[in-house]
């Protein structure tokens, strides 16, 4: 299993803020060469990372998606951000630098402005929700779907 280190205000893995698009493509190709096997096609990592550039062609946004968690540990200060419940992760990162408690998407999105770091999930689900009747009445496959929203789906850095 590979390891991708998240460095606030710097980068995610070998992809760094300020890189050119060509440098990013080289990083993705290196990851593909090292980690992709018969289970994944060559575009697997192209969809795992989203990168945006400023008008000068330099990376100003990097996002990693949680679907890579079966192949990579995405680590921030020794914590695998896609394999720890959202509530726990937020408490830990909040001690490093406070999150924006006024963010309009709070609950779905947690923004740590001083770190240039954001975590996002498409739905909010917490441990206490498992005790609710609406959850207990769901078919098991729907419960499983809801349980995944206890975790973040993306982590991103921006400059």
Summarize the structure.
A hairpin with a 2-residue loop joins strand 6 (72-76) and strand 7. The strands form 2 sheets. A 5-stranded mixed β-sheet has the order 3-2-1-6-7. Strands 4-5-10-9-8 form a 5-stranded antiparallel β-sheet. The chain has helices at residues 21-35, 44-48, 86-96, 133-136, 140-147; strands at residues 2-7, 11-12, 15-16, 49-53, 59-65, 72-76, 79-80, 109-112, 117-120, 154-158.
Give structural notes:
It is a single chain. The protein is α+β, with helices and mostly antiparallel strands. The protein has one domain. It has five helices and ten strands; from the N terminus they run βββααββββαββααβ. The chain has helices at 21-35, 44-48, 86-96, 133-136, 140-147; strands at residues 2-7, 11-12, 15-16, 49-53, 59-65, 72-76, 79-80, 109-112, 117-120, 154-158. A five-stranded mixed beta sheet has the order 3-2-1-6-7. The protein has a five-stranded antiparallel beta sheet with strand order 4-5-10-9-8. β8 and β9 (117-120) form a beta hairpin. The protein is globular, with a radius of gyration of 17 Å. The two termini are 29 Å apart.
**Widest beta sheet: strand line-up:** 3-2-1-6-7
Q: Provide the β-strand percentage band.
A: 25-35%
Gross morphology: globular
Rg (CA only)? 17 Å
Record the SSE blueprint.
Blueprint: E1 2-7, E2 11-12, E3 15-16, H1 21-35, H2 44-48, E4 49-53, E5 59-65, E6 72-76, E7 79-80, H3 86-96, E8 109-112, E9 117-120, H4 133-136, H5 140-147, E10 154-158
Parallel strand pairs: 1-6
Antiparallel strand pairs: 1-2, 2-3, 4-5, 5-10, 6-7, 8-9, 9-10
